[in-house]
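User
Class, as today's exercise, I want you to study this protein, comparing sequence with structure tokens, and judge whether sequence predicts the tokens.
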Amino acid sequence: MYKPVFLLLALCLLVGRAFAQLNNPDSPDALRSAARALTVGDLLGLAEPASEGNTHSQLLLGLSLQLISQRDQHGAKESGASGLAAYWLRQAADNGSAPAQYFLAELDIKRVGVGDTGGCSEVSTLLDKAIAQQYLPAMTALGQRYLQGGCGFKVDDSLALPLLRKASAAGDAEANYWLGVSYEKGLGVRADQPEANAWFRKGAEMGDAACQNALGINVAEGNGTRKNETEAVEWFRKGAEQGNYEAACNLAIHYQLGQGIASDNVLALMWGLISDRNASGGYYCLDHIEIPKLTKEQVAEATQRANAWLTAHHYPTTPPPKYTPAETQ
């Protein structure tokens, strides 16, 4: 009779260790990181308390299954993980978990990309419920929807920008990214690259990986700011270390070209492999960069380094490239 309590306590300790290095344990990135760190045994241990109504177990189980589903899609194979993820996230959302409401809305939006619009009708309701609990990522997500449209939302900058500004002022780092995008592209405001960079920098300094990548691009190219490739590389590295595949690819490019850092083709291939393992939307870094001739030993070293990083950060490992960007010796 004490087994469920013991399992839940053990899992709480495990998740607590995963959160130890994170500023906000309820942030989407922190929860994804905790979910990635769970082993198969941990997931089996979550099932019993989740089935008995423990909201946090339901959330972690649903999120872990969602990540597994995304991994399966990356490998071009089908699984039932997506449906199970939705089931457990809904259980947690119905129990009042604001993060679960946020992730369930995110899952409904992602389904639109594969032609399933059935969940769009509840996205606004789910986000509103999370916002009512002061869950700032949901406020940013709602602002993003009004900024971009889709899934039943009409583009409305007059609704998007106040939500994003409010979320930013309250401390949500990702909101700064979308405010930066608004000023960069002139969405609801006059296009202003220096102002965009100011928002990107604010988010980057708060640790948002997308902001770090965006700021790195503009600093590297001198868009609205003084060009500084050395600084750009550091922003790309910060974003890449958080698993942002675009930042990892940009870091690979700078290692390949020797811009802002000493040229190193092994590290270029390493970060290219990491980028491709975490990529979404069909973009693959190694299709877009040309790394000079590498030996088989160098390819093996790059692959080993990439897999060491992926393992340490609880991502699936990558096989050696099916081809190298240039002929091997």
Summary: The two ends are 63 Å apart (CA to CA). The chain is about 70% helix and 0% strand. Confidence is low (pLDDT under 50) at residues 1-22. The CA atoms of residues 230 and 260 lie 4 Å apart.
